[in-house]
Specification:
This protein has 930 residues and is an alpha+beta fold. Among the domains are: 1-29 and 41-73 and 458-465 and 635-841, 2-Layer Sandwich (Nucleotidyltransferase, domain 5), CATH 3.30.420; 283-395, paz domain (Beta Complex); 466-628, 3-Layer(aba) Sandwich (Rossmann fold). The protein is built from 22 helices and 40 strands. The protein is globular.
């Protein structure tokens, strides 16, 4: 394939695009390692080559850090120099479902053609097609369950396309009055791809194009075909029923095996990992409903139409909708639940074909299927058929895409928490279950897959930055060990000031007597003094209030009392929460952030009244009282920070962005997007902006507006700190949550909006844009004690930029945090634009250093602080809505009905802006009550 235009080679932004600013620099070619560089040469030249990377070419490989070797959860695969033929599987863009409307056992109704069939059913249908046409499909070809089929040979279709007719493979014997269902499948040849292109691509000799993508997808479908036919599957994982755990309310967890064919440097690898899936419990639908309702008594007590409250009915309807059940009156054909009845089986009536009326319970008695529970509701299947719960059977292996409760989420976390070497052993066992060597589908594609994971993979351990605090007014530096350090005998780098404070107590005087309150105040003040926080007026105003009363009146009332007695509103309101959980915390945060502009700190009375000094130190640091009052806990200082962030000739801003989406199955919620930016040169103090946009839209639609506002904050802050500050010259932007398939869109849209925000402020910084990936499946292991911490995980700062990374793109894998429970997941970083000109060492080091600047803890975190903060801003979205307002954030709460625009407008109009006092504070660095 001829190279692209030479003017596009080595461009500092991916996709061959020429940026509006920055340098187009030359440098070492792909695959060569740069020679020794001066210790300060962190800004590197971009690589030139005749081959253009998918997004941005790797400028070389890192050298900084201690060299080690590790084991990874990827397996080498050999793919022959063969030809693959790609076929489109269609009938109006998918398998088309044709049948004649029949007579329902209960009532006659028109059958609506489904807009999409389940992938598992499509696979069954395609298997039936291959069995019925052995002359064409021997050996059998592979199919992804949707639109694509691949064969290692050309099929004898009698042309490029052929239409096949096949009967329903899962249909029972033909019933009276119902003709058999017929499906039409059309195979159309799309393309022929030679695997040589794939080999050239991983060798760095071939540009990425659609042929490469198709070849990779074909081999992915080949390795997944056999397990997908035998087990429940979801995208790139299949799940095994012999490793499961009950989590209550009708759900259970199954262990899954993830597998993905991926191109790497000089080779093809298969990434294998563990996953956890949530499934409905199999068996009687009635038993499932009783389990969901968490009730062991008579079904009539909780499932009778007159016993179900509106809320419980709504919860049950949402839980059941979409479950497929077998119904004996239709030959155990799978039917999908679409709702629940408003009446019980003994009162719900419908007309027979004779014109007579009958109830559901009478109808089933006439079929010699008398019901045991006639006084409970039915489920709606099809268009209008109402079926009793007790006659429906829930087959095994149905995914439950429902929002989990807090208890269920904890169970999921425990189920997924596996120690590193145990996880590696389970991954090896999972590969054995895949039985790639015994799969006809894998063999016919000529694939050979190693049974053992890749070992001796080169990695490096980066040094941590120094952490700077204050001690007696002077800088005090310490070096983290294993990603952690201690605040003991240190003061914050920039302590906040509390002019006056107040305490609201939502407990009785019996539980919080005067002596206990006095001791609490003394402990709070002593800790403030120890960490350097100056409390000007040390005696707080305090009030006892009823937790069932008006929280808004309580907060505003104590504020006015402070104004009257002390001459100003409080800088901080400490709220002591009652033992029984309430919604007080959310109301307090909402009022403090949007109504009165005062920082609030909620504490559990059961904890703070008997607290030790370490607890109160945590209140100041971990629960970030200091940071939310405008202080800075600590800063990271390293060679990279000094050269990059503290270069007065090239002022720099570090920014981060993220989007969070509604829970699975929730359709009437928006997505929340956030952008944060460090206003100071130490990348320690951030301001934020948040926006509300249509649900599950990944592109940040208000990117330009939010970036412009944060850049303005930064410029204003630096004007206060410096007399004549130099305009911003560099912008390092970390973007979270973007999948590989969306990289190009991020470059074409969001990067463009970031530039426009700069231009409208007369700024022209060089921009480096880095995508932070958390939902990948790369894991790093080592049995050597020198390389691991107490948890068995690789030590903080382990980085890989060879062997398992992209063949040409500028990416790396970094495990920046120390392990705690289970197996630590590293971050995957893809540099899409690099106008600043970071070399691999500089990019990896600055990213690692930024993981040590997170204000809430004295340990490094798994992703850079700006990304962490952006995620936290999104998670506080609920606190920007009036808790007494019309919008309900619970999974069962209904919103404004109508189109997407209607519910979006409701969320956007009710979204409250921050109070002016909070807009430039890190109010978002919050935690649960303590």
């Amino acid at each position: 394939m001829p190279p692209r235009n030479a003017s596009d080679r080595g461009a500092p932004c991916g996709g061959g695009k020429t940026p509006t600013s920055g340098d187009s620099r030359g440098g070492a070619g792909r695959g060569s390692r740069p020679g020794p560089a001066p210790a300060t040469a962190f800004l590197s030249l971009e690589a030139k080559s005749d081959i253009v990377a998918v997004h941005l070419r790797r400028p070389g490989f890192g050298k900084v850090g201690r060299q080690i070797t590790v084991t990874v959860n990827s397996f080498a695969a050999k793919i022959p120099q063969a030809t693959i033929v790609h076929y489109d599987v269609s009938g109006n863009s998918r398998l088309v479902f044709y049948f004649i409307a029949g007579v329902n056992p209960i009532s006659e109704f028109p059958v609506v053609e489904p807009d999409r069939l389940p992938a598992r059913f499509n696979l069954q249908l395609f298997t039936s097609l291959q069995d019925s046409e052995p002359n064409i499909f021997t050996p059998k070809i592979v199919y992804d369950g949707r639109k694509n089929s691949y064969a290692p040979r050309e099929l004898a279709l009698g042309g490029n396309s052929r239409k096949f007719t096949i009967g329903d493979p899962s249909a029972p014997a033909t019933m009276s009055g119902r003709p058999p269902k017929v499906y039409h499948i059309t195979l159309t040849k799309v393309a022929t791809i030679n695997n040589e292109l794939l080999h050239r691509f991983v060798a760095g000799k071939q540009e990425y194009d659609e042929n490469i993508s198709t070849a990779i997808m074909a081999h992915n479908v080949a390795i997944r075909m056999e397990p997908n036919l035998k087990h429940p599957f979801d995208k790139r994982s299949f799940y095994i029923s012999d490793d499961r755990q009950n989590i209550g309310r009708g759900l259970e967890l199954w262990r899954g095996i993830f597998q993905s064919v991926r191109p790497a440097i000089g080779r093809i690898i298969i990434n294998v990992d563990l996953k956890a899936g949530v499934f409905f419990k199999a068996g009687s639908l009635l038993a499932l409903c009783m389990d969901f309702m968490d009730f062991n008594g008579s079904p009539t007590t909780v499932l009778s139409a007159d016993r179900l409250t509106r809320q419980r009915r709504n919860e049950l309807r949402k839980f059941l909708t979409g479950i497929r059940v077998q119904v004996p009156t239709t030959g155990n054909k799978l039917r999908t639940i679409r709702g629940i009845s408003d009446a019980n089986a003994n009162t719900l009536s419908f007309p027979l074909s004779t014109g007579a009326q009958t109830t559901v319970s009478q109808y089933f008695a006439s079929l010699s299927m008398p019901l045991q529970h006639t006084g409970i509701i039915c489920v709606l299947v099809g268009a209008s058929a109402m079926i009793p719960l007790e006659v429906c059977h829930v087959p095994e292996g149905q995914f439950a895409r429902k929002q989990l409760s807090e208890d269920q989420l904890r169970e999921l976390q425990t189920f997924s928490t596996i120690k590193p070497m145990e996880r590696l052993a389970k991954i090896k066992a999972g590969l054995a279950k895949l039985q790639h060597g015994q799969s006809d589908y894998v063999r016919q594609f000529g694939m050979e897959i190693d049974a053992d994971p890749l070992t001796n993979v080169p990695a490096r351990i980066l040094d941590p930055p120094e952490i700077t605090y204050k001690l007696k007014g002077k800088n005090e530096k310490l070096t983290p060990r294993a990603g952690t350090w201690h605040l003991q005998d240190k003061q914050f780098y920039q302590p906040a000031k509390i002019f006056q404070w107040a305490i609201l107590i939502y407990e009785s005087k019996k539980f919080v007597p005067a002596p206990a309150l006095t001791q609490l105040i003394k402990a709070f003040l002593a800790t403030c003094q120890a960490v350097g926080i100056n409390v000007v007026k040390q005696e707080p105003i305090y009030k006892y209030e009823n937790p069932l009363g008006d929280i808004d009146a309580h907060i505003k009332g104590i504020g006015k009392e402070s104004l009257t007695q002390l001459g100003d509103f409080p800088s901080l309101i400490v709220v002591i929460l009652p033992r029984i959980g309430t919604d007080i915390r959310n109301a307090v945060k909402y009022i403090g952030n949007t109504q009165i502009g005062v920082a609030t700190q909620c504490l559990q009375g059961s904890k703070c009244l008997r607290a030790t000094s370490s607890y109160w130190t945590n209140v100041m640091q971990k629960y970030v009282v200091n940071t939310r009052l405008g202080g800075i806990n600590s800063i990271a200082t390293s060679q990279t920070f000094r050269e990059f962030l503290l270069d007065k000739a090239n002022p720099t801003i570090v920014m981060g962005a993220d989007v969070i989406h509604p829970s699975p199955g929730v359709k009437d919620r928006p997505s929340f997007a956030a952008v944060v930016g460090a206003v100071d040169s130490n990348a320690a103090y951030y301001t934020d902006r948040m926006s509300v946009q249509i649900g599950r839209k990944e592109t940040i639609l208000d990117m330009k507006k939010m970036c412009k506002s944060i850049l303005s904050d930064c410029m204003e802050y630096r004007k206060k700190m410096e007399k004549n500050p130099t305009p911003l010259k560099r912008l390092l932007f970390y973007r979270d949550g973007v999948s590989e398939g969306q990289f190009t869109d991020t470059l074409d849209t969001e990067l463009k909006w970031i530039r426009e925000a700069c231009q409208e402020l007369s700024l022209n910084p060089k921009i480096t844009l880095v995508i932070v990936g958390k939902r990948h499946h790369n894991q790093i292991f080592s049995p050597k004690k020198d390389f691991i911490d107490k948890s068995g995980n690789l030590v903080a700062g382990t980085v890989i930029d060879t062997v398992i990374v992209h063949p040409t793109d500028f990416d790396f894998i970094l495990q920046s945090h120390g392990g705690q429970l289970g197996t630590s997941r590293p971050g995957h970083y893809s540099v899409l634009c690099n106008e600043i000109g970071f070399g691999p060492d500089a990019m990896q080091t600055i990213t690692n250093d930024l993981c040590y600047t997170y204000a809430r803890c004295t340990r490094s975190v798994s992703i850079p602080s700006p990304v962490y903060y952006a995620d936290m801003v999104c998670s506080t979205a609920k606190l920007r809505y009036d808790p007494t307002g019309r919008l309900n954030f619970s999974d069962t709460g209904s919103q404004a009905s109508g189109s997407d625009n209607v519910y979006l407008e409701a969320f956007q109009s009710d979204f409250k802006d921050l109070h002016g006092n909070q807009k430039r504070r890190m109010y978002f660095v919050v935690s649960s009550e303590h």
